[in-house]
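Open question from group meeting: does this chain pack into something compact, or does most of it stay loose? Before anyone orders reagents, we agreed to write out a predicted structure and look at it together. Recording both the input and the output here so the notebook holds the full record.
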Amino acid sequence: MSRTELEHKDDEATIPFSDSLHFSDHPVPRRLTSSQKRANQWRRWSEDIIPRMIVPYLSYIEETLSLRHANVPGEHHSNDGECGTGCRTRSIKVACVLFDAFEEITIIACPCFPTPLQLLRRGLFPCAPMVPSLAVDLRVLEFVRLLFVRQSPNQTAWCDALETFLDGMRYKLTLKNSLRRRFSNAFHWYRVLTVLARDHISTLITDARKDGSHVDQPSEYLRSRCPLCFGGNDWRNEVRGSPSMPNIIVCIDACFTQKCSTNPRGATGSDPPNPTSSFFLPTADVNAMEDFVQRCRGEGRQARASRAEPDEDCYEEGMRVPVSVLNGCGDSFIAADEKREKASTRFFTDTGLMALLCRHDRVLWVVNLTSAGEKQHYALALLDRLFKHLPAQMTIGLLYDIGCQLERSCRKWKFMDDNTLSRIVFAVAVFHAYGHQWPCQIVYHPRKREGFGLSDGEGCERLWSFLKPLIPSLRVSGFNQRLFVLDTQIRHLDSKSLQGFGHWLHRRWIHCQTKKNGALDSLHDLQVDEDMLRVEWKAQVDHQTKPAPRQSRNKAAEVITTVLALEKTLEAQEASIRELKMQLHSGRVPDIVEFNLQLADIRSRRVKTADTLRRRRAALGTEDKVNLQKMKKDIYLTVRLNALAVKTRIRDRLRQRKFELERLERSYRATINAEHKLHANTQQSIKRREPGILKLVSTYNGLCSQLQSLIRQRRAPPYAIMPHIIPRDGIFLLDVDDDIWQDVGLDDDTMAPPAWLSDDVVRNGIRLQLEVDQCVEEEARLMRERAVIQEWMLAEWGAIRGASNNADAVMSFHLRSRADELVNICVVWKKKVQCIPCAWPVGESWGPSDEACFRPLVDAESVEGEEGDCEGDLEYGEIGDEELMDAIEDIALADEYRYDYSNEL
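Structure tokens returned:
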């Protein structure tokens, strides 16, 4: 039975509140099971106690000046236990856990003035909603709350340390059971209370801002999620400057390390939901999208079955990349997926997460994965939710690891209507672009596609790194508890990123200017015409994205060349089998199971290659067979085919190595103390080293030298081009502009090579011009965000001032606190973005007056005097795990890795 069915069944069998838990007049109370008691307690917390505690909690914070002057727990208040309605009262002894003490107090409980509210007046929070045996100091809970969003949460260790600490001061706990369970209950519901209390203040500010002026604007939810993307007064201002650029840039990615184990005792159902807002999409919406996708695929298959598929390579409707290239990209990622350690639905109820983030790494929505793989309906559900919150004409740029495949599916199976598809610009994330074919990269790579500037699409990877400490505890957590903890961490990340927006814009602007000036200087040294470079780039894209059959002028010659290439591939595979057997005979096999899998895979590929070669040879005519023998005697052609085969092998092994390093990274992030395992894995990769990528590079460069000699000796065809030698330095980076992707001089596709293929000056000029274009796009987007951030600050300040006009003393205190937070942020923002011009006039005012900003400005300057501006900040594409990066560098420098072919012939 699925989780949704179980939840529905639990809702139908709702257990009513039981008076037997408190003040029952029945002579023989009805006995409840432990699960019924927990359900009753959860409902009392969610529906009764916590809602009633919000305003008293805010009042207590105001009274104690944000817990600075807390009340004495044992102090008796004048109205404690007094009841004017004649209710029955009951004396309850409560053990109180303080920072430096442990004491017992007595509470006179009354239905009119519940125990939780009485404890709250004393600065305590109860462990149960009705008759608590333990209460914890609010300052202790607040400290633990702040601690657990900054490190791996471990309540067991905390409670054990606290108990030992109090025991050392001769405070003995007289509780029947340990402290952990009671403390956990109090801590959880305290966090719920703090979330709802902050949402209460935010609602007051939002209501004060609603004046009807935000018609046809992004939703209030999106405005709260990212001020830089959605905080402007009018998103159309952004369109007027650069209509070709997407209005916002978002990224999607999945993570299979954030999974939750199946209950080992076979328990069904799930823990009750928390009464807080969540970033997670409802399960019903995800299931509805899955059903919709299945219906579309079923209808699409029926329609396609009635049409004959074309024999030759071609473009699918709306796509700029031919079918053969898209199939190659799909096969590459499928091959990597098969080797990825994903979550089995047999052992894991929840198999991972998929998130939608903006380009500023702010989480928009998250979806819980319950399937073994990364299915498309999860991404479609996230996009569907996003478009429901956007104006009808607003466009997005989507960065996704397999963006080409998602666009193909949307057009092929009609997952989206034409209007919605026209509002999406698809691209692939920078880090995973290496897995795509070169024709796909020149269309979908964000460094080649117009409108993405310097966005990398790796915000999700940074999010997974931030959530890494939660992996162990959430592996055995309840469903709703897991979502609640993740929501809490995301809120903490929001708070940090909001304060850092000024630094973020400043760093991006400096980086953009440095990169742009460097590219312009290099472009000026080349002395090439910009218009000519743009014409050549367009010609290169058009030529390299043509369907495969149209790229050959001589079909017979292509068949013969294919036969020769297959022969070289077969020889390479047979050599690999011999090398593996030599390893076995010499006893250099660390893992026999993995060795057998690798050997079986290579043999399978050899059989397929031999079968393909046999069929191609049988299809040759008499004249073709004669030409084949002549071409075999052609030294230049033989060397060129050898070079092409070696280069193809280098590309395959580099891709496989990149996927292997990605698995290593995921393995590292899934381990709390991974130093020993990581070092062991690195050493095993070194020991399992086959010929090595650098050895292949040396072989390829030697073949290129032979081709150069043959060209100089005029033993090569006319217009023969010298292939580019692969430099050993930087071979493992797989940059999109590396020569490894293009087979210059290794095919006879054209007799008169164009400048973009044969002229190194033009090729470098195209690369530099594209770099300048990216920087110009990034510059324009940063200028928009500079204007938007000031508009958001001005509007937020006005909303807080407006809410304060109608607020009582308690709410006024909290609104002033929120205003103080805004002033501190404003001071940093103003200072950091003063070097960035605005895309449109926004005036001088930021909201807070100069007098209000003066004191925080002095404090900020004193702090900056002690710390550097960018200390602790990650630059573009950096990962904050030095140990992991050291291990990856060790592998790269040693050039050790175990390879498998990732593409089927």
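Observations to bring back to the group:
The chain is about 55% helix and 5% strand.
The CA atoms of residues 156 and 344 lie 29 Å apart.
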